[in-house]
Every structure is written in structure tokens, then in C-alpha cells.
Amino acid sequence: MSTESVISTQSAPPPYELYPPARTWSGRIYNWVRQLPRFATHQAIYLPTMRRSRRRRQQPPTANMQYNHQPLPPHANRASTLSFHTVASSAYDCYQYWVAKAQSLPKLPMPASVARYRPLMVCLCILATLLCSFLLFCSIFFSPLDLPDPVFPDQVLPINGSARILTQNIIMRPPGIKNNWSDYKDERIDYLIEHIFPHYDIICLQEAFAFATRRKDVLIREARLRYGFNHHVESPRKYPWDVGVDGGLLILSKYPILKRDSIQYPRGTHSDWLSLKGALHAQIQLNALASFHLYTTHTQASYDLNNVINPGDTSIRLSQFAMLHDFISTTAGNDNDPVMLLGDLNVDAAVHRPDLPLTHHSKESSVYYTWMTKVLKGEGVPASELGDVGNDDLVFSHPWRMPDLVDTVYAEYGYHPVTFGDIDVLINPTQIIPGETILTDHDQLMTVQSIDRLYWSARNTSRLQVVQPVVQPNKVKDNPDLSDDDRQAIHFTQISDHYGLMCQLHLA
């Protein structure tokens, strides 16, 4: 006697032919889950009778055996007696294979005390799968990669030789963050490797974030294999459970690094709350007798409204500068090696007077720049200047000081050159247009700010001298290695919304 029962087409569910046919792979999978055949859809729906135990399955049918449904009538036609297994095997070629495979798998009966928690166990298995997938994703996109062995030997600076140093904010933020249509991150990474790295011996980068991307690892690997940057220091990597991204700092050096350190500032405000900013230190050995301390940092950005300075941002930056000075005193206070501090300090040193044109070069320094320099030297700022009227006590002061700390670019130019939000002047001086529009935020166009710094403290050492500190716009149109066709094929006009600063460190 057949073990299948028939349900009349007058009862629910309706015949298969009333279900819409699947037109996509996802639809076929969905219909397969619902056990809808692709062929012979005009038949009535048959449901298999469930047997209660394996022992009853082995017994021959008797007159006393009770069924849950009526048996199939003997006059039923062939099309009506097709079981789901028969139809599924004709619709899906691999169905019978997997059915046979499932029968051969070992069957482990679940104890009744455990089987009652089967839904909970299924949920736990799903959660464990999601957790393992998440950890695998983090290990692929958040952990640093193993670097290959160096190809080139470490560089040694000879007497009367010079090392070329660059600092550059490359606005290489995590995936999905952009100012305009596109930041062209991958294209700019390739441009940096091909056209910028070959010209320098030590490179300091800001906004080179490693969060959820491998671009930073590509920079480090290619710099090592192609140009001999065998040593590097970077901001500590962050993971999703840190609720923040890394500081985005990177130091690349062809010279050996004797000591490396890093600090992390307290969280900033606005979007800087998610960027765990800080500072890096590298004691770089130029040769057996000469070394210097190199520091790079990226501090709290300014979020000003209507060109009014935000006092909260200013206070946070001053506290970060005080932490940075303490960091320098801790790592460089026990020797007399010179100190170089560079990076995107986010303090506009220029004074913008409304009665002067945008093309005017500011020789005067802003009060915020003066405060920053005093705090970095360790001198501190009078509390009365910060709004505490009548209080002449110094805040952010430190017993260890660098009185000879010099802004080398300002000393070289005699004014504060623009490093962010620059302008281009056309034939007539009154025709002024933004210098860069692809990467720069529209609110920052033509703000002509001077926010990138290159400080130097000789510390009574005359053997090492900073010479020729200049602004490096790194514009595509000024690259002599590119043809006109190459320039037309590049979608950006410069490698960042910031200009870089470079200098030569001369060993006498």
C-alpha cells in the first residue's frame, strides 16, 4: 500500500500551476525551499505520510495499521501519483545525489534533554557563524600584513651629504568617506608610489588610514621593495570594537630607526571623535655618528562657522600640543640630538584681513599660531589670553623646554605660505579661481590657509642643518615625467587637498 496521501485541489494550498514560475536563480532557490517542482505543475499536491518510528517503518502493512490519511485510489493516473521526490529529481539533477548522500551520513540521535533546546542551538550556531565571519573579515582588512624581506641595504648619509625629507597630508581616508564625487584613492596611491616616493629619503604622511583597507599596506610594501624604505613607524591599528579609526600617521625611512614610539590623544570633537589621533616618534640614525629625533602629528581639525574660530577646537589643540611637548621631553630629553617636528597641525598661521586681497602673503602671525609655538616650546600661555581675565598664570607650560624651536618654512619665506585651500590667478589679478576642486571640500575652497608645519630644534648641534625648506604643491601639471596624454588621463590635479613641505637635512 502506498504511503502517500492526496489532498484535494479544493483545499489549501492550491495546485502547483497557480504558483508563478521562477525566472531568476534566487527565485528557483526559493521555490526549491518551498518544494515547488518546475515540471508537471498541473498535478494535485501530495504530502508524504509521516511515520512515527523506524520500527514501524520495517513492519509490513496490516489491516489493523492506522494511517493519518486515506490511501491513494487504485485508479489514480500516473501524473497524479508523482511524488515530490520524483518531480524534484527531474527538476534538479543533483537532487538524488544529495538524497543518497544524506542517507549515508552517520545519524547521531540527540538526547531528549538536549533536543528540547534545538531552536536555541540553531540560533547559537548562526551567531557563531556570524562571529567567525566577522573575525575573519577583521583579520583580512584590519590586521597589518607581514612584510617581505628588504631588497636594498640601509642607506648611510656621508659627510657633506643631504637627506631629502617630505611631510604630506594625503587625505587617504577609510573607504566610503569622500568630499566630492570621488577621492580617487587607488589612483593617487599609484601616483604617490610612481612619482613622489623616488625623490625622498624620509617621508611623513598624515591621513594615511589603515582602517578597513589595504592601501596603507600597499604603500609600505611598495616603498620597501621598490625604493629601499626598509623602516617605518605607523599609528597603532584599530578594530571595529575600538569604535574609532587609527590616527593615520606613517613614517617611512631609508635610514635605520633606532627607537620608535607613539602616543594617542584623548578623543576630539565632531568627526575627530572617531579618529584616534596622536603622534609618532622615530630616532633616525643617518650614520654611525649622527642621528636625530623625528616627530609627526595630526591634531584636532577646526570646525569654524562663519569664519569665527571655535574656542572648543582651539582648547583641544592646545592640550594636544602640551601632550606632544611632554612626549618629546620623554623620548628626546636624555640626549642632545636635534628634533624635527612636522605634520598637519591644523592651526592657520596667517592673518586674513578683510581689506587685503587673497593674493596677499601674510607676514604677520595669528595669535593661535603664537600660542601653538609657545606650547610646543614648553613656555606655556598666560591664562588671561585664553579668556581667564586677570589670571596671569601660565597654562600648558613644562619644565623641559626647546627655546630654539624654529618654523623653518616661515623663516625661509618671510611669510606664511599657503598649504591648504590655495587659489590660482588667471591673466587678470582680479580673476581668481580655486587652485584645486577635486579633493577639497567646497566649504574650504579659497580659504588660503597655512596649517602644515616643519619645526626644527638644533639643540646646540651644528653638524645637522635644515636647508631649502619649501612648499611642494605636487601638482600633476608640473610633473616633468608625464606626457600631455598622461596628464589628460589623470582625474585629479594634485595628490591631496594639502600641499606638502620638504627640506634637505645636511650633514656637515
TrEMBL record:
Residues 59-69 have a biased composition (Polar residues). Residues 180-375 form the Endonuclease/exonuclease/phosphatase domain. Pfam families: Exo_endo_phos. One of its GO terms (molecular function) is sphingomyelin phosphodiesterase activity. One of its GO terms (cellular component) is cytoplasm. Residues 50-71 are annotated as: Disordered. InterPro entries: Endo/exonu/phosph_ase_sf, Endo/exonuclease/phosphatase, Sph/SMPD2-like, Sphingomyelinase/PLipase_C. The chain crosses the membrane at residues 120-142. Keywords: Hydrolase, Membrane, Transmembrane, Transmembrane helix. Its EC number is 3.1.4.12. Belongs to the neutral sphingomyelinase family. PANTHER family: SPHINGOMYELINASE DDB_G0288017, SPHINGOMYELINASE FAMILY MEMBER. This is sphingomyelin phosphodiesterase. It comes from Hesseltinella vesiculosa.
